[in-house]
Design a protein that fits this description.
Blueprint lengths: L3 H4 L14 H24 L9 H19 L5 E2 L8 E2 L7 H14 L3 H28 L2 H13 L1 H4 L12 H13 L4 H17 L2 H20 L6 H30 L21 E2 L8 E2 H5 L1 H13 L6 H14 L3 E4 L2 E6 L20 H24 L1 H14 L14 H7 L6 E5 L6 H10 L2 E2 L9 H4 L5 H6 L24 H14 L2 E7 L16 H9 L11 H18 L2 H11 L11 E5 L1 H14 L1
Helix pairs in contact: 2-5, 2-6, 3-4, 3-5, 3-18, 4-5, 5-6, 5-8, 5-15, 6-15, 6-16, 8-9, 8-10, 9-10, 9-11, 10-14, 13-15, 14-15, 15-16, 17-18
């Protein structure tokens, strides 16, 4: 294909002056599909497999199951009694990402996909789609299809994005560059088609993740003034009306998802507060990142790519004028916001305040609590800069050099091949899946972030007395505040959510029969529990914990080794498995009272329903006795 960047000087008028040809689109899409298959080939071959043991992976799997369950049963999508049974909970604040789950549901219906296969398909699709979105924006900026191809590789296949195996709700990046492209087209004088693109894409950003519309607005504030000035449209009323129309369209489209949250907040029943307004502080630092669960710091060239940063440095010093100032400012602002409320250097939080410290004081920004999310805004800005810089390099060195750079970027950012996980759940779950009666399962230890129990629910469909939602609502916790439920809670919990039900210490051997019978009735009759499950371990092979780098040499190796060869950074899912097992072991140790209480309430566990480290209590005989007593009383 012929690039405008090679055949003509790059000016505002020539950049993106024609839409890409069908041949360009097909070739570029094939390239991105090839990289996706190269990176994730085990997933392509085993779409039904499980690829993570992270709680968010299981929660997002549950999201797909819930959409299918609710739509099939005619139940409201934003209210469920399958979690926190029997009172249930609103899902208005759940990160169920309708821009992902609804298309996945459509694929499940059309192609009879399982929940696991739908998850894999939507995860894999995010990479070529995100790359194409970035390519369209970059091509408009640079005029070069080849330079934009490299920018799309960086935007979609960077380590921040490929690490989102657990976060199907966040992995769809494509709407952000398309929303920015629509706004730029409006500022340059394009018509109502650009308005539709900007409005629809911004709304879809909101239906992926509420952070993304904030990123769109941030990009607009920094990019539109310069674009309007260069296009001589700063005072053009029609342009401003079209920008306003795009914002109004986005607001109207996103209103169905926004209004239920507003209603809950207005009723004073919003999500519980947190210990700190900033979550995961310290993951992003001045010099690099220390992902959660790792003790090592990876310098920014590892996370963003050595070659990418070299090319951006070349652009800064040799082709600075090829990039609009707004893109440099956007990159700088994103980097500053990533630092959180206070600057962290080499693992030590300093007293230096950063701009994000004021977010908690503004109602519209208070929900922005995770600094590393601004990495998406940074990689967007870097992709724009990279495209323009490579277009300038293409004019000097030719297309093969630019395509070679795209290939090297892909090679450097390649993660380790994913390994599937094969859990072996207890026999119980297959049995109750075939039971037409509806009732609840009490999973122990009780954990407010127990995503795995929600995954098991996708296999059996019965209600759970607990659950894990992205934002815990007070109404969901009412059923966990009774004496028996508090007595079943672990003695400690690793959770930053405030006002959770507190553990109730009891002398289990000293409990009188009247109390025990009252607690049995609450569990069996009021909460409709028919089975209690105590999982003392994980249902999968956890592996051996990785040795943490201790010497200066080891730390420097982790900090500087390119991502593809950096075993401490390019396979975080494998490294997480021992940590999950360790967390489970501690949770079980903190739930000794719960195990003793269940034995006091219901005797020994049922044989043949559990597993290697799983005990199951069958409460159906208890329910039959209580039902018979109630019938005799009438």
């Amino acid at each position: 294909m012929t690039d405008p960047a090679v055949t003509a000087p790059m000016t505002l008028e020539s950049r993106g002056s024609r839409w890409p040809s069908a041949k360009e689109v097909v070739l570029v899409l094939l390239g991105y599909l090839a990289i996706t298959a190269w990176y994730w080939w085990p997933m392509v071959l085993e779409p039904d497999s499980i690829w993570s043991v992270g709680r968010d992976f299981f929660q997002n799997t549950w999201n797909l199951w819930w959409v299918d369950y609710a739509l099939s049963a005619g139940e409201p999508l934003l209210q469920t009694d399958r979690l926190f049974h029997p009172q249930g909970t609103s899902l208005a604040f759940q990160t169920w990402s309708p821009a992902t789950t609804l298309p996945a549901w459509g694929l499940m219906q059309l192609f009879d996909l399982s929940v696991g296969a739908a998850y894999t398909v939507m995860f894999l699709a995010a990479f070529p789609l995100s790359a194409m979105g970035a390519w369209l924006l970059a091509r408009h900026l640079s005029g070069s299809a080849s330079a934009s191809f490299a920018a799309g590789v960086f935007f979609a296949f960077n380590p921040y994005h490929t690490a989102m195996v657990t976060q199907l709700n966040n992995v769809q990046f494509q709407w952000l560059p398309l929303a920015v492209l629509g706004l730029l087209l409006i500022a340059e004088g394009r018509g109502w088609g650009a308005v539709a693109l900007a409005g629809v894409a911004t709304a879809l950003c909101g239906y992926v993740d509420w952070y993304q519309p904030v990123f769109v607005m941030t990009a607009a504030l920094l990019l539109l003034p310069g674009t309007l000035r260069r296009a001589e449209r700063l005072k053009d009323v029609g342009t401003w009306l079209r920008l306003g129309a795009a914002a109004l369209l986005a607001l109207v489209l996103v209103a169905p998802g926004l209004l239920p949250m507003v209603e809950i907040l207005a009723a004073g029943e919003g999500p519980a507060g947190l210990d700190s307004p900033i979550r995961y502080a310290g993951e992003v630092q001045l010099l690099g990142m220390s992902p959660k669960g790792t003790a090592a710091l990876a310098a920014w060239p590892v996370i963003l790519g050595w070659l990418t940063l070299v090319l951006i440095a070349w652009t800064l010093f040799r082709a600075f004028r090829s990039v609009s100032a707004g893109w440099w400012l956007l990159a700088l602002l994103a980097f500053v916001l990533m630092q959180g409320a206070r600057l962290t250097v080499m693992g030590d939080e300093t007293s230096i305040p950063m701009p994000m410290a004021v977010f908690d004081h503004f109602p519209g920004l208070a929900f922005i609590r995770v600094p590393h999310r601004f990495l998406l805004l940074l990689v967007l800005a870097m992709a724009g800069i990279l495209a323009c810089g490579l277009a300038a390099l293409q004019q000097r060195k030719g297309t093969p050099v630019v395509l070679g750079a795209a290939l090297l970027i892909a090679v450097e950012m390649q993660p380790a091949a994913p390994e599937s996980v094969r859990p072996t759940p207890a026999v119980l779950y297959a049995m109750i899946a075939d039971d037409s009666e509806d009732y609840a399962v009490l999973e122990l230890p009780l954990d407010f972030r127990d995503g795995y129990s929600m995954y098991l629910q996708t296999l059996h469909g019965k209600a759970l007395t607990g659950g894990y939602t992205s934002h815990l609502l007070p109404g969901a916790l009412k059923g966990l505040r009774s004496d028996v439920m508090r007595a079943l809670l672990p003695s400690k919990h690793d959770n930053d959510v405030l006002d959770l039900p507190e553990h109730l210490p009891v002398d289990v051997p000293a409990l009188d029969e009247a109390t025990l019978e009252a607690w049995r009735r609450e569990l069996v009759l009021e909460k409709r529990v028919r089975f209690v499950v105590m999982r003392a371990g994980t249902d999968f092979q956890s592996g051996t914990p990785a040795a943490q780098p201790e010497t200066l040499e080891e730390r420097l190796r982790v900090a500087l080794t390119p991502f593809r060869f950096n075993t401490e950074m390019n396979d975080l899912q494998r490294l997480a498995r021992p940590r999950v097992a360790e967390f489970r072991s501690q949770l079980v140790a903190d739930s000794e009272q719960a195990a003793a209480l269940v034995r006091r309430l219901f005797g020994d566990p049922a044989p043949r329903l559990g597993g290697f480290e799983t005990e199951v209590w069958d409460l159906r005989p208890v329910y039959a006795r209580m039902s018979a007593e109630a019938e005799e009383g009438r």
